[in-house]
Amino acid sequence: MKSRLDKVLSAGGFGTRRDVKRLLRARAFTVNGNPCVDPSTAVDPEVDLLALDGVSLEIKTAVYLMLNKIAGVVTSTDDPNHRTVMDLLAEPWSRMDLFPIGRLDGDTEGLLIITNDGPLTHRLTSPKTGVDKTYLVRLRDGMDADSFDECARRFREGVTLGDGYTTLPAVLARPEGAPASEVLLTIQEGKYHQVKRMFKAVGNEVVYLKRVSMGPLTLDPALEPGEYRELSIDEIALLWEGIRE
Hints:
245 residues; alpha+beta; Structural Genomics Hypothetical 15.5 Kd Protein In mrcA-pckA Intergenic Region, Chain A; Alpha-Beta Plaits; four-stranded antiparallel β-sheet; 6 helices; 15 strands
């Protein structure tokens, strides 16, 4: 199936789509023997011959799975005492050398990407790249308009946790039509139990936590808890686009 060249190369590990555009300008790239500098060129990596500086490219077969994590499993490739997210995978994925991008607490649900793409994993988890991670949070205590605004202000300025660490600015929002106890929190970090500790610092308690997006990529609502599917080329490109240059 044909897709934009920049999306294909990005999904194949050549970096962000901006990285790909720089590559096309700086290097001799051909499609089926014809010079190509246009990132929007439609190609099918299964059919078209791609070459860089005269050397044929085989776009690597990387695996990208979107998992709707369930509570009660740990985000690890192996754990002698607990069931892991890898145990949710059936063949052929269970036989592959895959790993999760980042971590979700054992009782946290939602979006988790499982892959074998090391460079993408590094870029998405590095604190320097500023990737947004949004969580649906249900709280012990509901917040009226005034308490919500105060909490949003404190999170926006950075809240100091129990160990003295002050978080980066975070964004608090209210889902449309949601009850007073339900909010959305967007952070760019992944400190240990960070979301729970942030609400504890403002005198509340998280009773349910689900990650709903990472960068521009949103959890597929059709995925039941514990289910997973492969990402499309467009979705893989979205992950790269969420990385701050």
